[in-house]
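User: Predict the structure for this protein chain, please.
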Amino acid sequence: MRTLHEAHEGASTLAALRARLAAIEAESDSAPAGLPRLATGAGGLDAALGGGLRCGALHEFHAAQVGDAAAAAGLVAGLAWRAAARTGRPVLWIRTDPAAQETGRLDGAGLRAFGLDPSRALLLQVPGTGEALRAGLEAARCDGLGAAILEIWGAAAPLDLTASRRLGLAAGRSGLAFLMLRAGAPPTERGFGAAQTRWSVRAAPSRPPPDAGFGAPLGQPAFEMRLLRHREGAPGGLWHLEWDHVERAFAERGLSRRSLPELHRHAGAAAPLSGGVAAFSADRPAAAPERRAAG
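Assistant: Here is the predicted structure, written as structure tokens:
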């Protein structure tokens, strides 16, 4: 039977742990002064975020379904290159072997077609989540990068609350735009972690170009983004964006969910087309485990 002294010690320890957790939470929530915002180019979305995604923070992007992995990668790539363009520094893309095996290798020609310069990318492929998190932490501490993408496939036991907080705090000190890309993650992992914002991304139908006929190019890559978490504001909100590969910016589309079936019929009842899928084709051979620069 516990004595009153032991009970008092236990209560004091619990109170100290709660105070420590509150201090960590406050530290991770505090916005470093003077850090810029990463504007997407879509006015309504940027306004809802207070000017864009906060640099110096961790932002998570989850593919809503396994088939949306390429679309989520395209959206994250567009954001990363926009961040890098502001500083003239490269993008570091960290991938795990399972991600490469499931989605195929990143392709330089696909990046160019998407409007992105592959010479501005550094690609690091590692065996698993543990190695990716260690590399991501070093990247988050680096102020010589324009942005960092950490791509993890499937269940990721090492990616717990502590690991995500470490990434966010390190990015806060360096001011780096740190973007985590997740696909194939269990539903329980889609609402967990210390990210500044968390998103669910789907591929959306591309609008056919004017007077599109047989052999005409595809429309602009399109994405559906749902805000699941926002540490600086209320979560919620659904945006339908298009990527302009010439302007290298996103723009909002005035589409609701109810109008999507109509767009499918207008496009000949075809399956949804997203330029993200075209730019990040998975029909090429998967990359062998390696560490190389994209080019």
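The mean pLDDT is 80.
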